[in-house]
């Protein structure tokens, strides 16, 4: 498994030369937006809610007129070239029910039975959803079914997070057709998790499917909620998923949020997740990226009061020529906040992992306790990792730390396992599996945890 230093230098020079030629395709932002907005689906929404959504769409459209399509010349997109989107012809498509049924059977979590929302090619599917577990008072549904009932809360929460206003998040808002909604009322402890299953199932043809799911999650004071977002799709066709999730935690609320993205090898997946935390709230997130040709995750957390806790765990398992880019921001704005972040990546083949994590500590946020670690495992001499943990501290009484490691498998650890009658290949696979499971073990839903463990087992051939 050892890689010679000379080979590494040669490969890095090759990659550097290749990166200098990227993003030469200029994207006409106006044409790009016009094409996609023109595909916006018409969903029946009650009058008052529809008027509000129309206002949001118009605001986002106006914002897009002043924004430019991201390129590798932009610092935040330095390593992630999505200019290929500009050359695609997009279409909205209906999926084959047989294909959808197979995805639902494979990826729905038994624990979420009764709290399952299914979106197919960006649109809510009543046929495959199962929303029956309402005895506790949990509100689960969509904008079409809950719009008027929840209109006051929509006005104060939907598209109101300041960090959900970048280019692709604005594009999502401008095309908003329906929204998956989860509302945990005050003091409610939700026993069973909620699952949001997003299926991309394009049909035959040259056009590229685009779907833009939107999610709104509200946890009222002292409520407790677990939910999982699962993004899946066919493995042989191109499609583009552009998703936005807004999460709001009131005082004392607790949310455990899992996101699993294992879409097809030709997919492009862009995700924005924006979180706002009130006093004494706790937010935990586990984000797993094991699919898509290009995936980008923007994860933004604002601690909006004292005594807030945030925990972020990420894992990217890459092969071939996959690219996975994670940009995260945890903003400590008030005293006595805490955060922990662990991001791990396994890169094989000619894959490329990017991580840029910012911890921001405002002057007011005294006695903040924050730790961030990026750990990366290279299985190939042609794989690449760019990692940049950052601390921006303006307070003078804090406990903050960050770090990053990029390494190959440890030869001594492989030798130790060989001394225990395990061959070198099996030893390497076992160590890779152990590296991945540290992140997977944080997922609170057993069936999801098991599915991901089985995937890693198959990849590592343990």
Number of strands: 22
How much helical structure, as a percent, in the residues?
Answer: 10-25%
Stretches with pLDDT under 50, minimum 5 residues:
1-23
Class by SSE composition: alpha/beta
Radius of gyration: 22 Å
What is the typical, i.e. mean, pLDDT? 90
Number of domains: 2
N-to-C span: 16 Å
Give the overall form.
globular
Oligomer: single chain
Core attributes:
11-stranded mixed sheet, alpha/beta
Blueprint (SSEs and pairs):
Layout: H1 5-19, H2 29-37, H3 47-64, E1 90-91, H4 97-107, E2 115-120, E3 123-124, E4 130-131, E5 139-142, H5 143-146, H6 151-157, H7 167-174, E6 180-184, E7 194-200, E8 208-211, E9 214-219, E10 224-233, E11 239-249, E12 254-262, E13 267-277, E14 282-289, E15 294-303, E16 309-318, E17 323-332, E18 338-347, E19 352-361, E20 369-378, E21 384-393, E22 399-407, H8 411-418, H9 424-440, H10 446-460
Parallel strand pairs: 1-8, 2-7, 6-9, 7-10, 8-11, 9-11, 10-12, 11-13, 12-14, 13-15, 14-16, 15-17, 16-18, 17-19, 18-20, 19-21, 20-22
Antiparallel strand pairs: 2-3, 2-4, 5-6
Helix pairs in contact: 3-7, 8-9, 9-10
């Amino acid at each position: 498994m050892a890689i010679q230093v000379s080979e590494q230098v040669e490969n890095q020079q090759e990659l550097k030369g290749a990166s200098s030629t990227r993003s030469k395709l200029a994207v006409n932002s106006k044409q790009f937006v016009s094409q996609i907005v023109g595909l916006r689906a018409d969903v029946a929404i009650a009058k008052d809610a529809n008027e509000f959504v129309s206002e949001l769409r118009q605001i986002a459209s106006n914002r897009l007129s002043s924004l430019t399509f991201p390129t590798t010349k932009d610092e935040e997109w330095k390593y992630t070239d999505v200019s290929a989107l500009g050359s695609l012809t997009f279409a909205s498509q209906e999926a084959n029910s047989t294909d959808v049924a197979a995805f639902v059977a494979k990826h729905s979590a038994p624990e979420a039975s009764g709290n399952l929302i299914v979106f197919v090619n960006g649109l809510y599917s009543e046929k495959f959803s199962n929303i029956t577990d309402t005895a506790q008072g949990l509100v689960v549904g969509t904008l079409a079914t809950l719009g008027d009932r929840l209109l006051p809360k929509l006005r104060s929460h939907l598209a109101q997070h300041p960090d959900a206003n970048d280019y692709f998040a604005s594009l999502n808002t401008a095309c908003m057709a329906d929204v998956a909604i989860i509302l945990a009322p005050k003091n409610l402890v939700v026993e069973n998790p909620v699952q949001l299953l997003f299926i991309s199932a394009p049909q035959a043809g040259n056009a590229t499917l685009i779907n833009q799911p939107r999610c709104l999650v509200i946890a009222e004071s002292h409520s407790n909620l677990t939910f999982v977002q699962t993004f899946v799709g066919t493995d042989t066709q191109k499609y583009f998923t552009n998703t936005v999730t807004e999460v709001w935690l009131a005082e004392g609320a607790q949310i455990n949020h899992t996101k699993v993205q294992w879409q097809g090898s030709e997919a492009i997946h862009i995700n924005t997740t924006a979180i706002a935390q009130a006093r004494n709230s706790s937010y935990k997130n586990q984000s797993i990226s094991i699919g898509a040709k290009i995936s980008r995750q923007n994860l933004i957390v604002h601690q909006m009061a004292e005594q807030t806790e945030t925990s972020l765990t990420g894992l990217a398992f890459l092969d071939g020529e996959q690219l996975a880019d994670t940009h995260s921001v945890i903003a400590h704005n008030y005293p006595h906040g805490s955060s922990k972040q662990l991001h791990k990546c396994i890169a094989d083949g000619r894959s490329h992992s990017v991580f840029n994590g910012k911890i921001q500590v405002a002057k007011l946020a005294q006695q903040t306790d924050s730790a961030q670690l990026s750990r990366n495992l290279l299985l190939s001499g042609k794989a690449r990792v760019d990692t940049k943990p950052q601390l921006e501290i303006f307070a003078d009484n804090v406990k903050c730390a960050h770090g990053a490691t990029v390494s190959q498998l440890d030869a001594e650890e492989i030798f130790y396992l060989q001394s225990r009658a395990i061959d070198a290949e099996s030893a390497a696979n076992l160590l890779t599996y152990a590296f991945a499971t540290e992140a997977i073990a944080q997922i609170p839903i057993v069936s999801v945890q098991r599915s991901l463990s089985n995937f890693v087992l198959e990849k590592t051939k343990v």
